[in-house]
Design a protein that fits this description.
- The complex is a heterodimer of chains A (296) and B (66).
- Chain A is α+β, with helices and mostly antiparallel strands and 296 residues long.
- Chain A has helices at 2-22, 35-59, 63-73, 77-91, 100-131, 136-151, 156-159, 187-196, 207-214, 216-230, 265-273, 289-295, and strands at 160-165, 167-170, 173-176, 179-183, 198-204, 244-247, 254-258.
- In chain A, helix 1 (2-22) runs parallel beside helix 6 and helix 4 (77-91) runs antiparallel to helix 5 (100-131).
- Chain B has 66 residues and is α+β, with helices and mostly antiparallel strands.
- Helices cover 23% and strands 30% of the residues of chain B.
- In chain B, strands 2-1-4-3 form a four-stranded mixed β-sheet, covered by helices on one side.
- Chain B has one domain (10-65).
- The radius of gyration of chain B is 12 Å and the shape is globular.
- The chains are: A alpha+beta (296), B alpha+beta (66).
- Chain A binds chain B through residues 92, 171-172, 182-189, 236-240, 242, and chain B through 2-4, 39, 42-43, 46-47, 49-55, 57, 61, 66.
């Protein structure tokens, strides 16, 4: 019985650590400290327990218990719904929205991480059961390392080049280099934009990247992340200086315009390079035969 | 559920100093004497209505909520 206890405890600890390490609150403002994080740590703990007791349950053997474990694992599907619902509600009161694509991506990540926790706990407890508890210190870290490695997706810097673009006016049209952003009428606004506005061009490296940048969800995610770090001069009922990302329809690259509270172009470009490529927006044209043919 | 019911993508008001360019259409039209008054009226209206002033480049400004 003592043996089982060690197996389970090792599994739970490894799984819980995995959840803790993958739980990050940064510029995305989510989940917030401390209550939002506590929810996820608690759910992560339950997931770790599930994974950890699976091996002793099979070895006992208690197949009824295993069946119940599978049933319990179904509960983690609700995590995605919970995240989606919360974030969608919060959208209504945001000046700059995340966009549904980004929310969907976040929700999916939260669900997936719990499955990673289950797998980590399962593998660790299996190793401990087979070879003894000291091996938990090997199996656990490896599992955690692998799960962080596998779950770090592409970033915008991998698929596109980010270069500075000149903000200027053509009549009443606001342009970033040759990309039309919007129509601005008032001279005061124009003056402010010329003085404080920053422009950036995001040039896709291939056809897949072009499709990714086409997706309005991906563009909204770029804007949201940039604004959540650098700030913007948009206020309720004063949307004149709304940051926008528009496409150069002929050449396929994006022009991004923003009037930020922290007008630092170098950091703006660095932030854009670090923005995650959304799974739902990711272009896959080059994976298809005709896509590759049409690309050349 | 979105409880905030509002006009989107609609012209809320027209400001012009050339009445011949506009007419009808069920949208309030504000006449101005000169460019300066036009800009000022447009700015105030945009702030009140929460819209953006766009220039049609023919002495007509429209205020649009996006």
């Amino acid at each position: 019985m003592d043996n089982y206890l060690i197996v389970i405890v090792c599994g739970i600890v490894a799984g819980f650590l995995a959840r803790w390490i993958t739980l990050r609150s940064d510029y995305r403002h989510y989940p917030t400290y401390p209550h939002g994080q506590l929810v996820h740590l608690a759910v992560g703990f339950i997931a770790a327990s599930l994974g950890a007791v699976a091996v002793p349950a099979i070895m006992k053997p208690d197949f009824v218990a295993v069946t119940f474990l599978v049933l319990a694992a179904q509960q983690f599907r609700d995590i995605r719904n919970m995240e989606r619902e919360t974030l969608t509600r919060l959208e209504e009161t945001k000046l700059i929205r995340r966009g549904t694509d980004y929310i969907e991506g976040i929700a999916r990540v939260f669900e997936a991480r719990n499955y990673l926790v289950i797998i980590t706990a399962l593998i660790t407890s299996l190793v401990v059961y087979r070879w003894g508890w000291p091996f938990a210190f090997i199996a656990g870290p490896i599992c955690i390392f692998l799960s962080t490695l596998l779950m770090s997706g592409q970033r915008l810097g991998d698929i596109a080049e980010v270069v500075p673009g000149k903000v200027h006016f053509q009549g009443s049209l606001l342009m970033v280099e040759d990309v039309i952003i919007m129509n601005v009428a008032l001279p005061q606004t124009k003056e402010k934009i010329l003085k404080e506005g920053m422009g950036v061009l995001i040039k896709p490296k291939n056809d897949d990247a072009r499709l990714t940048l086409d997706a309005p969800g991906q563009r909204q995610a770029i804007i949201h992340d940039v604004v959540s770090i650098l700030g913007s001069k948009v206020d309720i009922a004063e949307p004149d200086l709304m940051p926008l990302a528009r496409k150069q329809v002929d050449k396929g690259y994006l022009g991004l315009f923003i009037v930020a509270n922290e007008p630092d172009l170098d950091y703006l470009m660095e932030i854009i390079r670090k923005i995650p490529v959304l799974e739902s927006a990711r272009g896959t044209a080059l994976k298809s035969y005709f896509g590759r043919k049409a690309a050349d | 559920m979105n409880l905030d019911v509002s006009l989107k993508e609609a012209i809320l008001a027209v400001v012009t100093r050339n009445p011949a360019k506009v007419g009808g259409g069920g949208c309030p039209i504000f006449l101005a004497q000169d460019q300066e008054e036009m800009e000022k009226t447009a700015l105030l209206l945009a702030r009140i209505l929460g819209g953006i002033v766009h220039d049609l480049e023919n002495d007509v400004f429209i205020i649009v909520r996006h």
